Amino acid sequence: MQMPDPSAAILSRKSSVVRRLQGVLDDDSVIHEENELRAYECDALTAYKCPPLAAVLPRTTEEVAAVLAICHEEGVPVVPRGAGTSLAGGSLPSADSVILGVARMNEVIETSYDDRFIRVQTGRTNLSVTGAVEEDGFFYAPDPSSQLACAIAGNIAMNSGGAHCLKYGVTTNNLLGVTLVQMDGTVVEIGGAHMDAGGLDLLGLVCGSEGQLGVVTEATLRILPKPEGARPVLIGFSSNEVAGQCVSDIIKAGVLPVAIEFMDRPCIRATEAFAGAGYPDCEALLIVEVEGSDAEIDEQLGVIGQIARGHDPVEIRESQSAEESARIWLGRKSAFGAMGQINDYMCLDGTIPVTELPKVLGRIRELSDQYGLDVANVFHAGDGNMHPLILFNANEEGQLEKCEAMGADILRLCVEVGGCLTGEHGVGIEKRDLMETQFAPDDLEAQMRVKDVFDPKWLLNPAKVFPLSVTEPRRAIAAE
Amino acid sequence: MLTPKSEVELADILRAAETPVRVQGGGTRGVGVARGEVLSTASLTGITLYEPGALTLVAKAGTPLSEITETLAAENQRLPFEPIDHRRLLGTKGEPTIGGAVATNASGPRRIAAGACRDSLIGVRFVDGAGTIVKNGGRVMKNVTGYDLVKLMAGSWGTLGVLTEVSFKVLPGVASEATLLLDWQTPDAAIKTLARALRSPFEVTGAAYVPEGPDGVPMTAIRLEGFEASVAYRADKLRTELGEVRIEDDSEKSARLWRDIRDASILAGAPADVWRISVRPSHGPRVAKALGEARLVMDWGGGLVWAQVAQGTDLRARLKGIPGHATLVRAAPETHARLGTFPPEPEPVARLTAGLRAKFDPRNILNTGLMAAPEHA
Ligand SMILES: Cc1cc2nc3c(=O)[nH]c(=O)nc-3n(C[C@H](O)[C@H](O)[C@H](O)COP(=O)(O)OP(=O)(O)OC[C@H]3O[C@@H](n4cnc5c(N)ncnc54)[C@H](O)[C@@H]3O)c2cc1C
């Protein structure tokens, strides 16, 4: 993966930039020693590493604004960072950039149950947002599997999703307002506790903009009353195709489960070995979860069971208790960990129309044979967001490149069948150079014009999202 | 009137345009005053893709909303966001189009549970003010590839581009619905009742208060939708929680009630101005107090207030200090001109808005005069 050459001029000014930053922050909030900067050299896309020029950990919106104003004046690129769990290299620094981490900004600012929102500083982790309201019967719906670690800041920047977004939507559908600091230090309030912001939908634009339009310091999030109960059913099938068809039929039948998760045989075997959840040894399995009172759950599971039985399932296991539910989810939740135990893996994130599921799974198997790399599939089937895991050996020369090439082929396939390159992880650096397979030059130009408005000097996270060759003229102006 | 028959023809027209155009779908949502020749999407019609098993529908922007609703109903599916029909309130004629619903982000009572139009919209194609064809999003519901111009286009009132095609995530239709009703509540008490219902786990999909229900008295209404047994169960639970309620469990009658709430029907006809106010739900009663004698319809648990006030009233001045915003929906042209149709924006937001408009419509020819920025710039 190519990154632009760092600016020698900026590197040579490191000490004066650091001094200016120390002028507006506590000394312990400005990190500049090489060994300490290691902590910020990568995110969860660990194949790529580069320590930044410096890292700052402000505590307030005012401090963020002061830092940005300085970097703006100095012409120093800034890479915003939440918890650094991006799988796309979204928070990967360049050597001439300042990492602006919001990890110390994690306060709850206001909670209102009558208006059903919570306002937090964005360094707060996803799970601790729910943690702040769950005793009172509420929760924050978007639930990425990384929710214990990832921050609301990164969730907003990536427009993250989770297992339950089939029913509740992704981050953008649960965000009411933000405080955004632009690169020049201007503080902008967008939206608020009312349900729709007036004017152009800047909120929708900021969400998913991967830290390229501004630094989000506070957010107003919609919270929901917890359902009375939830229960999954596990259904095993003897082929991927049939499982795919079953997903489509469930959706057509008029039940809207909160989650439909899919695992294929390689993934089932690996998780069984790792977590021992007692899954049937079959070609494909679905975990379908529904919510409501006991009676409502029974009714919905009844409908789902009936549809599933029409598809010759190997096994149907309807949960009857909290323990059984936990066991059904156990395997799914440990899937990534399990794969990590047996191999290095690369996790893809393309989305396809649900109806193309059988075809795409077939093609992935062919690609797997062609490249000689194993693939395990575990994903959110209800919305077509696939997570093929390509297994490889990072220590073997050339395997990473081979794996990336195969990943690119799979993502191109997703686009070809009417889907997209990324459903929830974001483009970052990982899918940057594939953007032209999904978008025409005019489509990309329209997006870049938005950045021109918010960050005319292209200093915020500039080497991400768009192919470098496409952004080159804009970044060149910034470098002057 | 310009009526391009294809996206390419539309692009040609905009590229060649030397004077402003007024973008029009069905012409039923004529809020505010735009200048110039009418540019109609009436000939850009048709559902281009509908996959019930994937919950997705794609249609050309000029497709009548009724065609979409009927096509979905045939598969027992529907648009989640329940778009308002402006015809009664505004006294307009014509057929609402799907593009018009998107351009105005038209969203009804179900917004509290299923989100606004922008939340169901998953893809757009449009032609910007320079005549360039742009696509964003697509036909899958989870998509974070690049910036989300889909949301930006929703509710942009044709000021950034002319929509040519829109894609949606749709939802299964419901087997039945019922409405819990309380009479004679004050706005204050009503909003408290609605908040209690919305805090419950019983999945309320409508929460409104109108000064005159079908019985001619103030009415608080709470809607439940779903499988019959589930609706009955939840209605019973809520009744226990809320006390003296009547239950309208005739689905058709319930649906009629919500159509009237959605369209703010009781505010139609009278020679008075109508405003649409967005505030945090618990501030609904504050709005009521500040507006005194005004006739109000409160939806979204109090978060959306339709207010009918004497002609020429500067309602924004009366609501000073209550966070949120107000749009002038129905008034004489001079009132629109004097007070501004769309809410004024604070400086940094106005600057971003103006910047975006200048980028997407560099010659300022699209719906010139609509939304706030250029007038105030
Ligand atoms: C094991 C594992 C499982 C995961 N599962 C899921 C999943 O189920 N669903 C899902 O969607 N994702 C998942 N992810 C990906 C990742 O957790 C999400 O993208 C998450 O939202 C990133 O949050 P973060 O705080 O770690 O952000 P970071 O990695 O720190 O940053 C991500 C992006 O946000 C930008 N950013 C950070 N802070 C700000 C700010 N204050 N203002 C503006 N921009 C900012 C960064 O510049 C970067 O572009 C998973 C990751 C891992 C490692």
Automatic annotation (TrEMBL), chain A:
Organism the protein comes from: Palleronia aestuarii
Q: Tell me the domain of life.
A: Bacteria
Quote one Gene Ontology molecular function term: FAD binding
FAD-binding PCMH-type domain mapped to chain residues: 48-226
Give the cofactors, semicolon-separated.
Answer: FAD
Its recorded name reads Glycolate oxidase
Q: Name the UniProt key words of this record, in alphabetical order.
A: FAD, Flavoprotein, Oxidoreductase
Database matches in Gene3D superfamilies: 3.30.465.10, 3.30.70.2740, Vanillyl-alcohol Oxidase, Chain A, domain 4
Q: Which InterPro entries did the record assign?
A: FAD-bd_oxidored_4_C (IPR004113), FAD-bd_PCMH (IPR016166), FAD-bd_PCMH-like_sf (IPR036318), FAD-bd_PCMH_sub2 (IPR016169), FAD-linked_Oxase-like_C (IPR016164), FAD-linked_OxidoTrans_Type4 (IPR051914), Oxid_FAD_bind_N (IPR006094), Vanillyl_alc_oxidase_C-sub2 (IPR016171)
TrEMBL record, chain B:
Tell me if Flavoprotein is a UniProt keyword of this record: yes
Q: Which GO terms describe its molecular function?
A: catalytic activity; FAD binding
Q: Which keywords does UniProt give here?
A: FAD, Flavoprotein
First and last residue of the signal peptide: none
Where do the FAD-binding PCMH-type domain residues begin and end? 1-173
PANTHER family referenced in this protein's UniProt entry, alphabetically? D-LACTATE DEHYDROGENASE (PTHR11748), GLYCOLATE OXIDASE SUBUNIT GLCE (PTHR11748:SF103)
Its name, as the record gives it, is Glycolate oxidase FAD binding subunit
Q: Which organism is it from?
A: Palleronia aestuarii
* Taxonomic lineage: Bacteria, Pseudomonadati, Pseudomonadota, Alphaproteobacteria, Rhodobacterales
